[in-house]
Fold this protein.
Amino acid sequence: MKRLMLGNEAIARGAYEAGVRVATAYPGTPSTEITEFAAKYDEIYAEWSPNEKVALEVAIGASFAGARAMVAMKHVGLNVAADPLFTVSYTGVNAGLVIVVADDPGMHSSQNEQDSRYYARASQVPMLEPADSQEALDFVKLAFELSEKYDTPVLIRLTTRVAHSQSIVTLGQRAHVPLKEYKKLPDKNVMMPAMARKRHVEVERRMKALAEAANDLWINRVEMGDTSIGIIASGITYQYAKEALPNASFLKLGMINPLPRRLIESFASKVRKLCVLEELEPVLEEQIKSWGIPVIGKEIFPVQGELSANMILEKIAGKAPDVRPAQDLPPRPPVMCPGCPHRGIYYVMKKLRLHATGDIGCYTLGALPPLEAIDTCVCMGASVGMAHGMEKARGKDFSRRLVAVIGDSTFIHSGITGLIDIVYNQGASTVVILDNSTTGMTGHQDHPGTGRTIKGEAVPPLNLVNLIKAIGIEHVRVVDPFDLEEVEKVLKEETQREEPSVVIAQRPCALLSKEMKAPLSIDEDICRLCGVCLRLGCPAIEKKPDGMHINQALCNGCGLCIKVCKFGAIRRAGE
Amino acid sequence: MDTRSILIVGVGGQGTLLASRVLGSLFVDLGYDVKISEVHGMAQRGGSVVTHVRYGTKVFSPLVEPGTADILLAFEKMEALRWIHFLKEQGRAIINSQEIEPMSVIMGAYEYPKDLEDKIRKVCPGAVLFDALAVAKELGNIKVANMVLIGVLARLLDIAPQMWEKAIKTVVPPKTLEINLRAFHRGYNWI
C-alpha cells in the first residue's frame, strides 16, 4: 500500500515495521511528530519523557532488557542526552537501539544550527541519513539490523526538510521480533574503568568492521552519469543536487558515519571534478581531504543555513537565475497568539521595568517588540541558573529587579535543578513559571504536569506547588496572568524578598480552549487613540489611519485589552 | 510529466496546511509522485508561512525554487508580494485580498503597503485577486476561505472537479464536508 507520509511519520512507521516495543522522546521541532505517530500504534509503548537524557536512558534500559527501542529528539536535545550516548556506545546493546536526531539548518525553530554528525564521530556511533520518507522508513529498519549485528546504538540524522516533507512510501508488515533473553553481563553493561577499557577496544573494532562493510552497503550507491562532475551527497542535499544537475554522476551516501573509504576513492577516480555537498559543517569534506582526495566543498558553499537547488546550479554550473524579491516589505516574524496567557504577565513585567532571564518556548517570543519582556534565551532551563548567576555577580539589589521566566514543560525538563541550586546556595531569585498546561511551541504535547500521557491516559499530575515547597522554597504564589492587578502586587512583593520565591502564572494555552468568546471591538467615539492597547502586542489590535480596530477574524475575545483600556472603549459584541 | 510546482503562502493559522493536504491526496490519487514541504513549530505562530507542493513523474527536491513555481496560492495580500518572485515567467497567481497587519505594522515601524495590487500585477498581470474571506462569510463560515481558494486553483489546473471532491472528502471532517464543498464550487466558478 502506498501513502503520502511526513518524514517523521515514516520514521515511526519504520519503527513499527521493525518490531519496536518502546519509543521515547521529549518534544522538539523538527522531531516531535515521530513519537506522536509512534504512539498511535498499540504494539508500541510510547512516552513523553521529562527530558532527552531520561528518554535515552529509558530506551537504553528497554534495549538491555531485550526489546527494540527508539528515542527521538532535536539536535540540541542530543546535547542533553550526550552523557548516556557516549557510554552506551561502549556498552553496545542487547536488542536494537536507534537514536533519531533532527537537525535544523537555517534555524526555522531553534537557537543554534549545530551539526549532529559530529556527535556520531565523537561518540563512535554509526549514523544513517535518509533523503525522503521512503528512505526514512527503510533506514530505520536497517538501523535496527545494524544495531544488533554490530552491537551498537545507531544514530539516524534528519534535517528539517526531510522531517517535515511528505513523500510517497510503500508500507510493509510489522516484523515479529521476540524479546531477547535478559542476562546479567557486568563486563558489558557496568562501565567501571576496568570494564570500559576493554569495551573501548571493542568500539574501535566495531567501527573498523562497519567502515569496511559500508563499501558494499546498499544505502551507499553510485549513479554514474556525466563524468566531468561527481557529486557526493546525503540526505536532502542529494535531492537538491539531482534537481539542479540531473546528469551529473552521484555517490549518494546513506551511511555518513563511518564513511566507505574504498567506495569514495573509486568514485573519485572516475570523475574529473569531485564536489561534496553538505549543509552546515565540512564533516564529510574534511575526512575525504584527509585521504588525499581533492574535493570542492566549503570554499564555495556556506557553513550557515540551508543549501538549495538554485544555489548548487549557480555555484557549480555558473547559472544564476534572475530572481528579484520585493524590497522593504514589513517583516512578519511569529508572534504570541491572540489570547495568549503570557501576554498578561509580560505586560506587567515591562511596566515594572524588570529584567528577566528567559527560556525556550512560545514565551521566548516575548523578547520581541512591543513587550520586550525578556533579556536572554540560551537553552532549556537556563533562565533559572542564569538569574542566580546574575544575582551572585551583581548582588541582591540587582536581583530585586530581576526574575527568571520559564514554561511549565521547560521547568520540569531542566529548570528544577537550577531552582535547587538557588535554595542550596542561598540565592534570593524570583522564578516565574508560565504554566499554560502544555508544551506549547511544539504543538501541544502533554508532560508530567498535565495529567495525561502521550497515549491519552489520565495520570495524577505533578503538583508544582508541592514539588517547589519540597525543595525548600517557602514562598510559592499562584496567580492568573490575566489578573493584572494581582500579578503586579505579587511580582512587587516577591522580587523584594530576601529569600528565593516562585510565582506560578496559571492559565491554559489559548489554542487549547475549544470555546471561542465573542470577538471584541473598539468604540471609536470613546477611544482617545492613546495606544496603550497596542503595548500588549496582540496581533488582533491594529492601528489604521481612521483609528484603532480589532481584527474580528483574529480576536479570540480574551478580554485582556478591556483591562488595560483606561477609557472603557473596548467592548464585547452584544454587551 | 515534468515536475510542476505550487507554492502556498499565508500567515500562520490561516489554514494553509489543509490546502496542502487536499493537494497531496489529489495528486496521489492521480498516480503522480508528490512531495510536500512545510515548516512546523515556531514559524506557525502568526508568522509568514509557506508550503511547497511538487508533483510529476519523478520529484527530487521537495522545495520550490525562486523563479520556478507554476502557481502561487496566497492567503494574504502582502504575503503574495513577499513570495511572488517564486513564480516562473507565465506563472499564475491566486490571491486572497485579505490584509493581516504584522506586528511591525501594528507597532508603527512599517506601513502596510498601499500599492500591493500594482506591484503584484507588474510581475503577474493575470493574477486572480479577490476577497475569499467575504465569500466564506457569505457562505456562513470564515474558516472555509481556504476552500474557496482551492476551488479557483482547481479551475486553473484542469483536473476534473470529481477528483477534487474526492480529495476534499478524504481530508475534511464529515460534519464540515457540505460547507467545504459549497465553498470549493464557489471558487471553482469564480473565473
Chain A has four domains: 2-214, 221-317, 342-506, 520-572. Residues 193-214 of chain A form the longest helix (22 residues). Chain A touches chain B through 58 residues (CB under 8 Å). The longest strand of chain A covers residues 226-233.
